[in-house]
């Protein structure tokens, strides 16, 4: 029988009954097994899929196995029952573990009740199985592998068919003995005699070997005939190779189409796996099927638009709900514990288990915590004990700590590691973890579980909740309470966390809200954080204290901005499964969660939401942003007196003094030189200024155009020798960076002011966009226009940008559109990109040329596919008003945007800069998926001779 307590739930088919075969069944077989028998179950599934598989066919038999075909959700049993209804046969993997599993028993009972024993197949993975003819059932005394149901007389009318694979470890379908026994299963399922199927399978295996041998034979024959046949023989060889290549191409094309379909099934639940499948499909032919390209983008969009990314499959191993998770201080280990009594250690980078489960508790393990130095792991359980472990060696340290008279449900180390606090149904106790001795008297005499326990960072406060649902603060040195209990409208405390500085206490409640409290005054801070629909089971602050994660039995995890109290992005969904625990990694990049489905999930807190707080430019507009070539610095312009601010993209902090120009005149455009040593700014006073990014000093002479005319845009040539500027006098000017002198005559041709300029990647062309609604290309060497103006915008052209290969030019305008142009022909490419609801002020390409980004007066930043013009995901929102400028970091992993807000128009503005992560759209597919997708994840989808594109982990 099946239960989420008993298996993993990696999705590849969330609606198993939707793909019916010609006989009305979606699956050829349903595989029922115990989690402990995952290895032989996987081998049986692979064997049934491969034996008798025809050339180019993805699977010979489609077998439903829950770790590859099901998503964890509250209606899990309904999905399993639907899968059994949609299966022609049932295969039950028998072992002592399966015999004791009530879930295997439940699945078996369901099948027999509805379909009878005629299509039931038994496979012995371990243990013994003896049929008692006199009783008409398996002998319970001699059948250690038989589920209880099969030991009842009359359940089966006769001895059922079964095969014994207990001696075939590691259950590799390529091993002859194991393959023969799986053929015993596969033959009746395929409606064939074993000899017939074995013969077909052998012929299929031999076919590829024959092809290789045939190639050798053909070459040998051709060599012998070369003297006689000459050119004719070579042509025959070429034809033979062409035929083989065509056969391989057709096979790869068929596999690619199947992979695309599988990718589209799993994309919502597992974008990383979907991207891996789509990338493999795209690589199946030299050009990649168009459907595969679309699937790759669909997977990238799914990852980008999630509020945070759950990467790869859930960490499975627990056979019941997981109650607690915790990261080690160095982030190298993740510990989990649950109802199955096991404590498990994981590598959070790969998701792989480390060593064997730590066994010792009897019954549920409620809580885990690492000591600050990472050398100890403390666990608490319903067996009324606390245990200490060496996490490196996986062994217990000393005797269990006993003293509680009821379940122990919470553990927490003090920041210096000298005190261990434990909370139970009876009391809160303090221990010396070095000696295992009590410290002082119990802090409470509760008769209700004390779930929340939290130390402040300096160790001077300990927070706990009591039977009256109130939070109490304690002095751990004296054991005395500090102040009155915290009580309020929303204070039925179920969970708690202190921020790193200890001045804020977050309390999760039975009703769902989360309340922040000032730990010094005992007063609530701000309004309750509302959003959960059920009790809040766990809370954790990020290491820098800026984020708060809350987990709830409503099946969601929410992230909150501690400074504002606002939710960040959409809730992280655990597929509706109740979430019991959350924990941030020490670097704050990962969040681990545990749930009722028996899994641990890892989430990347790299989202399509802005990174951190807006970089606030107080009382000033932001008219332009640029990111330095090394990606470490961002410049923003727009302040009065020509203010330009430099920021760290890593921390969001200002890293240089404000650069000032001429009083009362704003800087309207900024650009870094290709080597990052210079920063140029164009200003309202018509001047272009150069600064050193190392010293922030103004260098050289002011580069002036016509006095009293604004300089609106500035750009460096790719070699850094030239600087182009544009202004409202309708001219484009070129300057020597080394001498600050003009180069040639101004480029004239626009009938109104020129709002944007950009060099082509090879430096030979310059593009300009103006208020006369045209885009013009110029020959940098001669200063002459190239071709006719590019006409299409209905109003001012505000921004232009070349693609990295120089073949495309993007332009944005006040008509609300972005347009793409073929640089070679001057013709528009596709339809205008429409999505903004107001002016589009800025446009840029990603470094790989695959994306176009635009910023508009509707306050949004939008991403588009450069090849199709299709919008990618939802607009990026976070600016309060006009989004005025956008720029990609050189590695494409980050996007910067600036905005301006009219406070007292037309003179006073406010502005901000935001950073956005874009790695899931711009990074190489292998780089994204290799850490999170294993070769085992892909194995059910790929032919045995397939060479994966990426180096997936084992």
UniProtKB/TrEMBL annotation:
<dbReference type="Pfam" id="PF00400">
    <property type="entry name" value="WD40"/>
</dbReference>
<dbReference type="InterPro" id="IPR015943">
    <property type="entry name" value="WD40/YVTN_repeat-like_dom_sf"/>
</dbReference>
<dbReference type="GO" id="GO:0007165">
    <property type="term" value="P:signal transduction"/>
</dbReference>
<dbReference type="InterPro" id="IPR035897">
    <property type="entry name" value="Toll_tir_struct_dom_sf"/>
</dbReference>
<feature type="repeat" description="WD">
    <location>
        <begin position="358"/>
        <end position="390"/>
    </location>
</feature>
<dbReference type="InterPro" id="IPR019775">
    <property type="entry name" value="WD40_repeat_CS"/>
</dbReference>
<feature type="repeat" description="WD">
    <location>
        <begin position="790"/>
        <end position="831"/>
    </location>
</feature>
<feature type="repeat" description="WD">
    <location>
        <begin position="443"/>
        <end position="484"/>
    </location>
</feature>
<feature type="repeat" description="WD">
    <location>
        <begin position="833"/>
        <end position="874"/>
    </location>
</feature>
<dbReference type="InterPro" id="IPR011047">
    <property type="entry name" value="Quinoprotein_ADH-like_sf"/>
</dbReference>
<feature type="repeat" description="WD">
    <location>
        <begin position="615"/>
        <end position="657"/>
    </location>
</feature>
<feature type="repeat" description="WD">
    <location>
        <begin position="713"/>
        <end position="745"/>
    </location>
</feature>
<keyword id="KW-0677">Repeat</keyword>
<keyword id="KW-1133">Transmembrane helix</keyword>
<dbReference type="InterPro" id="IPR000157">
    <property type="entry name" value="TIR_dom"/>
</dbReference>
<feature type="transmembrane region" description="Helical">
    <location>
        <begin position="214"/>
        <end position="235"/>
    </location>
</feature>
<feature type="repeat" description="WD">
    <location>
        <begin position="315"/>
        <end position="356"/>
    </location>
</feature>
<feature type="domain" description="TIR">
    <location>
        <begin position="25"/>
        <end position="150"/>
    </location>
</feature>
<keyword id="KW-0472">Membrane</keyword>
<dbReference type="Pfam" id="PF13676">
    <property type="entry name" value="TIR_2"/>
</dbReference>
<feature type="repeat" description="WD">
    <location>
        <begin position="486"/>
        <end position="527"/>
    </location>
</feature>
<feature type="compositionally biased region" description="Polar residues">
    <location>
        <begin position="1"/>
        <end position="17"/>
    </location>
</feature>
<dbReference type="InterPro" id="IPR020472">
    <property type="entry name" value="WD40_PAC1"/>
</dbReference>
<dbReference type="InterPro" id="IPR001680">
    <property type="entry name" value="WD40_rpt"/>
</dbReference>
<feature type="repeat" description="WD">
    <location>
        <begin position="669"/>
        <end position="701"/>
    </location>
</feature>
<keyword id="KW-0812">Transmembrane</keyword>
<dbReference type="InterPro" id="IPR036322">
    <property type="entry name" value="WD40_repeat_dom_sf"/>
</dbReference>
<feature type="repeat" description="WD">
    <location>
        <begin position="401"/>
        <end position="427"/>
    </location>
</feature>
<feature type="repeat" description="WD">
    <location>
        <begin position="572"/>
        <end position="613"/>
    </location>
</feature>
<protein>
    <submittedName>
        <fullName>WD40 repeat protein</fullName>
    </submittedName>
</protein>
<feature type="repeat" description="WD">
    <location>
        <begin position="747"/>
        <end position="788"/>
    </location>
</feature>
<feature type="region of interest" description="Disordered">
    <location>
        <begin position="1"/>
        <end position="22"/>
    </location>
</feature>
<feature type="repeat" description="WD">
    <location>
        <begin position="529"/>
        <end position="570"/>
    </location>
</feature>
<keyword id="KW-0853">WD repeat</keyword>
């Amino acid at each position: 029988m099946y239960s989420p307590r008993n298996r993993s739930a990696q999705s590849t088919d969330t609606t198993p009954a939707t793909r019916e075969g010609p006989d009305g069944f979606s699956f050829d077989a349903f595989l029922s097994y115990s989690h402990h028998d995952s290895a032989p179950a996987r081998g049986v599934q692979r064997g049934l899929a491969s034996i008798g598989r025809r050339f180019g066919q993805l699977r010979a038999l489609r077998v439903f196995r829950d770790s590859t075909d099901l998503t964890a959700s509250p209606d899990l049993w309904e999905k399993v029952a639907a899968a059994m209804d949609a299966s022609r046969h049932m295969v039950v993997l028998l072992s002592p573990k399966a015999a004791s599993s009530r879930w295997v028993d439940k699945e078996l009972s369901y099948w027999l009740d509805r379909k009878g024993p005629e299509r039931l197949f038994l496979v012995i993975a371990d243990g013994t199985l003896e049929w008692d003819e006199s009783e008409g059932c398996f002998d319970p005394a001699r059948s250690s592998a038989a589920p209880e149901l099969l030991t009842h007389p009359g359940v089966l009318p006769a001895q059922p068919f079964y095969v014994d694979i207990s001696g075939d470890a590691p259950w590799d379908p390529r091993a002859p003995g194991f393959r023969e026994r799986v053929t015993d299963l596969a033959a009746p399922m395929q409606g064939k005699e074993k000899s017939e199927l074995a013969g077909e399978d052998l012929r299929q295996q031999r076919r590829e070997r024959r092809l290789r041998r045939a190639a050798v034979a053909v070459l040998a024959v051709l060599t012998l005939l070369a003297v006689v046949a000459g050119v004719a023989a070579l042509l025959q060889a070429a034809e033979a190779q062409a035929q083989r290549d065509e056969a391989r191409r057709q096979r790869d094309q068929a596999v690619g189409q199947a992979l695309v379909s599988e990718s589209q099934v799993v994309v919502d639940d597992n974008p990383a796996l979907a991207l891996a499948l789509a990338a493999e499909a795209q690589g199946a032919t030299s050009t990649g099927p168009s459907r595969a390209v679309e699937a790759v983008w669909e997977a990238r969009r799914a990852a980008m638009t999630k509020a945070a990314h759950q990467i790869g499959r859930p960490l499975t191993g627990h056979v019941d709900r997981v109650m607690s998770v915790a990261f080690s201080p160095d982030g190298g280990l993740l510990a989990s514990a649950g109802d199955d009594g096991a404590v498990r250690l994981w590598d959070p980078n790969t998701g792989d288990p480390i060593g064997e489960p730590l066994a010792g508790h009897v019954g549920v393990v409620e809580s885990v915590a690492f000591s600050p130095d990472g050398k100890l792991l403390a666990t608490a359980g319903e067996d009324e004990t606390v245990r200490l472990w060496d996490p490196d060696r996986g062994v217990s340290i000393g005797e269990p700590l006993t003293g509680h008279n009821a379940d122990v449900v919470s553990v927490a180390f003090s920041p210096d590691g000298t005190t261990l606090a434990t909370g139970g149904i009876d009391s809160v106790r303090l221990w010396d973890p070095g000696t295992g001795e009590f410290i002082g008297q119990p802090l409470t005499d509760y008769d209700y579980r004390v779930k929340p326990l939290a130390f402040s960072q300096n160790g001077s406060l300990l927070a706990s909740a009591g039977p009256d649902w109130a939070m109490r603060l304690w002095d751990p040195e004296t054991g005395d309470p500090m102040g009155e209990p915290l009580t309020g409208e929303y204070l039925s405390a179920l969970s708690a966390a202190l921020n790193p500085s200890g001045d804020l206490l977050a309390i999760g409640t039975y009703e769902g809200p989360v309340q922040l409290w000032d730990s010094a005054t005992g007063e609530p801070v701000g309004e309750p954080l509302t959003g959960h629909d059920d009790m809040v089971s766990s809370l954790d602050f990020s290491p820098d204290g800026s984020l708060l994660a809350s987990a709830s039995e409503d099946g969601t995890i929410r992230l909150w901005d501690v400074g504002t109290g606002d939710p960040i992005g959409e809730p992280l969904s655990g597929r509706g499964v109740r979430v019991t625990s959350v924990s941030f990694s020490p670097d704050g990049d990962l969040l681990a969660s545990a749930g009722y489905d028996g899994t641990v999930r890892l989430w990347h807190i790299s989202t399509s939401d802005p990174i951190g707080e807006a970089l606030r430019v107080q009382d000033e507009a932001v008219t332009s942003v640029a990111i330095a070539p090394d990606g470490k610095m961002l410049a923003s312009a727009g302040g009065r007196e020509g203010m330009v601010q430099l920021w760290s993209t890593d921390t969001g902090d200002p890293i240089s003094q404000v650069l000032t120009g001429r009083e009362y005149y704003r800087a309207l455009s900024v650009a870094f030189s290709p080597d990052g040593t210079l920063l140029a700014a164009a200003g309202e006073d018509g001047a272009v200024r150069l600064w050193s990014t190392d010293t922030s000093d103004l260098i050289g002479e002011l580069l002036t155009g016509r006095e009293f005319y604004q300089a609106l845009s500035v750009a460096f040539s790719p070699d850094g020798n030239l600087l182009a500027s544009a202004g409202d006098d309708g001219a484009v000017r070129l300057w020597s960076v080394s001498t600050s002198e003009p180069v040639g005559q101004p480029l004239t041709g626009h009938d109104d002011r020129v709002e944007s300029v950009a060099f082509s990647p090879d430096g030979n062309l310059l593009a300009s966009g103006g208020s006369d609604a045209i885009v013009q290309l110029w020959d940098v060497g001669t200063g002459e226009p190239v071709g006719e103006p590019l006409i299409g915008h209905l109003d001012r052209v505000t921004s232009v940008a070349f693609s990295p290969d120089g073949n495309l030019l993007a332009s944005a305008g006040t008509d609300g559109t972005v347009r793409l142009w073929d640089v070679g022909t001057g013709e528009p490419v596709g339809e205008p990109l429409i999505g903004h609801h107001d002016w589009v002020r800025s446009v840029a390409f990603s470094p790989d040329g695959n994306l176009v980004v635009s910023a508009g007066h509707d306050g949004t930043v939008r991403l588009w596919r450069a090849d199709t013009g299709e919008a990618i995901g939802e607009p990026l929102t976070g600016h309060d008003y006009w989004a005025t400028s956008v720029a990609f970091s050189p590695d494409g992993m980050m996007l910067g945007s600036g905005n301006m807000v009219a406070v007292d128009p037309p003179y006073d503005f406010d502005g901000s800069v935001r950073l956005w992560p874009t790695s899931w759209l711009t990074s190489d597919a292998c780089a994204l998926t290799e850490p999170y997708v294993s070769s085992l994840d892909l194995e059910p989808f790929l032919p045995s001779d397939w060479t994966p594109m990426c180096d997936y982990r084992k």
